[in-house]
């Protein structure tokens, strides 16, 4: 793992954050903690702010982005913020017809089926997403020492939406293209990798202190298919960012059969879902592994006694890693009581290394 250079100017704080220290395998007083989907529907202040504004419109307003990103930081005292945006934002910014339908997710006007359909996927220019640059710059100032995590959807997960036309349980059309039209498949993922990399670079250039590549649906694939059809493209996103000086987190759900490959793609931190213990994840990734995870999001709805036991277990198992970033195995569920999230943060902070 490359040791991130943290004093590279921009407006990042000179003292490495707990997140950066964990990424570099340097123990801190306790594992840094943040939650995927910490900004969003579990927070009443979010619902209030978002009322009457469509998701993609909200994602283009720097003031809204800033406020929604800050809400969970203020409320929970987490050790990192994640930019309020969505994985389809860079695609919408270059003109792809996509809407985010409440309760459904991203829906695509014209799914990608043939080579001519790729024309819409031109390269992303920073000028396409001025609201991202503006929001990140402002947030980095407002957050002070707390790092802002920028993110992008990974090529496979983006391709799944574009090929299926919307959310999918079985990813059947996506897999059919992967195996049946491999030339088209690789051309599609090539283009998505360029867009994802540029989207991450825009956020890093504006001061993001870490980036996460979300390959949420890669767990639908076998190890062999991941290695052949996906890994080269995710590597094309992450590898060129090795010198950017910020930790690179690589996350998927159901990807425990190929955590080592996700690490090899160019990740400093590998996200782990709840299906295996963190010490087993470390064994699979190899010596020096730094992991993020892995509380089952459903457990935030369980009794505190159960939740506390599980959080303690995860912190204990995380000690097998060179660094551990406490998180969920996937995003916060909408029905989660925010007070419980705060309580988990306090608990993890009380469990020193
Ligand atoms: O707090 C955060 O994590 C930051 C914000 C964030 C959102 N989407 C906001 C959002 C992040 C990091 C994402 C990433 C994202 N978007 C992923 C990868 C993460 C994951 O969960 O696996 C994926 C697969 C998407 C696609 C997407 N966008 C889905 C599945 C949905 C939910 C649809 C629904 O309504 O059930 C969205 C919409 C979305 N993105 C919402 C939020 C807060 C809900 C929209 C709303 O509040 O109206």
Description:
With 353 residues, this protein is α/β, with parallel strands linked by helices. It has helices at 18-23, 44-50, 55-58, 62-76, 89-93, 130-143, 155-164, 172-180, 182-205, 223-238, 259-264, 278-285, 304-318, 338-350, and strands at 81-82, 98-101, 105-108, 148-153, 210-215, 248-252, 269-271, 290-295, 323-328. It has one domain (18-350): TIM Barrel, CATH 3.20.20. It has 14 helices and nine strands. It starts with 17 loop residues before the first helix and ends with a helix. Residues 1-12 have low confidence and may be disordered. Bound molecules: coproporphyrinogen III (CP3). Coproporphyrinogen III binds at residues 36-41, 50, 55, 82, 84, 86-87, 100, 102-106, 151, 157, 214, 216, 331.
Short descriptors:
single chain, alpha/beta, TIM Barrel, globular, disordered N terminus, binds coproporphyrinogen III
């Amino acid at each position: 793992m490359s040791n991130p250079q943290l004093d590279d100017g921009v407006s990042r704080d000179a003292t490495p954050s707990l997140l950066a220290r964990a990424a570099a395998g340097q123990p801190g007083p306790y594992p840094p903690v943040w939650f995927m989907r910490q900004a969003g529907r579990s927070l009443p202040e979010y619902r209030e702010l978002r009322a009457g504004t469509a998701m993609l419109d909200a994602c283009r307003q720097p003031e809204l982005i800033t406020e929604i990103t800050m809400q969970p930081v203020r409320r929970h005292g987490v050790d990192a913020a994640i930019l309020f945006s969505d994985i389809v934002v860079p695609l919408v910014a270059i003109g792809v017809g996509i809407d985010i339908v409440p309760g459904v997710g991203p829906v695509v006007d014209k799914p990608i089926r043939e080579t001519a359909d790729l024309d819409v996927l031109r390269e992303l220019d920073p000028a396409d997403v001025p609201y991202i640059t503006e929001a990140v710059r402002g947030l980095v100032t407002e957050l002070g020492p707390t790092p802002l995590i920028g993110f992008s959807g990974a090529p496979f997960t983006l391709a799944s939406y574009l090929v299926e036309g919307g959310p999918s349980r079985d990813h059947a059309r996506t897999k059919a293209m992967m195996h049946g039209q491999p030339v088209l498949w690789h051309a599609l993922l090539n283009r998505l990798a360029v867009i994802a990399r540029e989207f991450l670079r825009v956020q890093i250039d504006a001061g993001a202190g870490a980036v996460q590549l979300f390959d949420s649906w890669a767990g639908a694939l076998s190890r062999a298919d991941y290695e052949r059809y996906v890994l080269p493209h995710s590597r094309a996103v992450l590898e060129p960012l090795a010198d950017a000086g910020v930790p690179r987190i690589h996350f998927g759900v159901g990807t425990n059969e190929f955590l080592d490959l996700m690490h090899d793609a160019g990740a400093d931190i590998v996200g782990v879902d709840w299906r295996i213990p963190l010490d087993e994840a470390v064994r699979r990734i190899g010596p020096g592994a730094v992991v993020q995870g892995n509380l089952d999001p459903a457990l935030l709805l369980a009794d505190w006694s159960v939740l506390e036991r599980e959080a303690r277990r995860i912190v204990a198992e995380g000690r097998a890693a060179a660094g551990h970033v406490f998180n969920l195995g996937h995003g916060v569920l909408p029905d989660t009581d925010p007070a419980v999230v705060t309580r988990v943060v306090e608990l993890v902070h009380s469990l020193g290394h």
